[in-house]
Write a structure and sequence with these properties.
The chain is of the alpha/beta class and 458 residues long. Helix 9 links the parallel strand 13 and strand 14.
Amino acid sequence: MSDGTGAPAAVNPRLVRSYDLRGRVDTDLTEADAHALGLRVAAAVRGRGGRTVAVGYDGRLSSPMLEAALVGGLVMGGVGVERTGLGPTGQLYYAVHARGLDGGVMVTGSHNPPEENGFKILLGTDPVHGAALRALVERPADPAPGGEARPVGVQGAYLARLLRAAQGAPALRIGWDAGNGAAGEMVERLTAALPGEHHLIHCKIDGRFPAHHPDPSEPANLVDLRALVRDRRLDLGIAFDGDGDRIGVIDGAGAIVWPDQLLLYLAQDVLTRHPGAAVVADVKSSRVLFDGIAQAGGRGVLSPSGYVLIRAAMLREGAPIAGEMSGHLFCVEDWYGTDDALHNAMRLLAAIGRRGSLTAWRETLPRTHATPELRLACPDADKARVLQEIEATLVAEGAVIDRTDGLRVTTPQGWWLLRASGTEPKLTARVEAWEAEGLDRLREELTGRLRRSGVDFR
């Protein structure tokens, strides 16, 4: 495809986010964009001396069309393409790592609404993000000879690798909610091979997401799973997002096990084998997590939010495990250092086999009062202004501020965080307090500061 002058078409720059490319299909994101991206990824791969990449896609209605156009651009750009087909993002990552490929592209809108889609890009085994992503999109690209595409079946090998991570899992009664996302078919195959009793909901892949929005970090999207766990008196429930890289967990009491709590449960298990190791968590995580890591003999490391930044901090610190409040968890102890929620589910089951009931463990945690992650609509162009205005007032007041990512403000009552989302036109916030009254006060404080800068806290 060309721009009408004979030159290859450009990629719409409005698609570029901090960590991937995303946009509304047929408005911001078109077939021509996918083809143009394929040419540019091919040029980047060849520029590194590479020859072959993997391509996979999620269950969105637009994904097959975008995948075909992307593959066409890659082939025109002179690289070999191994088409892994429909499946979760972890399956694509597995193909790149296990087969020693030179990169990969996943066509996915992740947890975004069904009318949106996008691309996650690997060069080698590293995600392309930030300035490197923009440079890739803007680089010149011309056709080159030697490209070809072929289907490659990796589902069986990926399934076997996941099951290896679940060795020692006890025979539990588990509810599973795939959210009609790309993990649905693999969940069916996994549960057929795991011990115990399994109850599956919303596992039919449907890009309209008829059951609920595909994001388990939002409590509203866990209502069906919580009801299933309570009604059937199950041991736990596990949920996934649209492309299977975010995990949500419900314990046997029907309570949400927040991602920082899940990270602590897994980290305590990992630290028995790696005493003194670092554990990386994002700025939205509870103080309970960092206190628990220290009590287990580990070293907690605070990182900016964003799955690629969490991964980078994990590799830099030599940490065997890392995670963030959105439900992205990473492990290099027995995996590839990628955010694969299916793998994390298998690790959880194996850890329960070693450590015992997740429900009983959660009930021993110190009680705090916290909000979930709050997402506040804010145009991208206004995010920096709002944060700068609020920071200026905090500095004038002598507040205790951690600027690892946005503003994390500590007070005698607890702490609150305000930061800019890297993937959506939103600010994200979280508040945690030691007492219920403190939570109300801190939330009111943050509400007032946001309103004075023109943001409605809902």
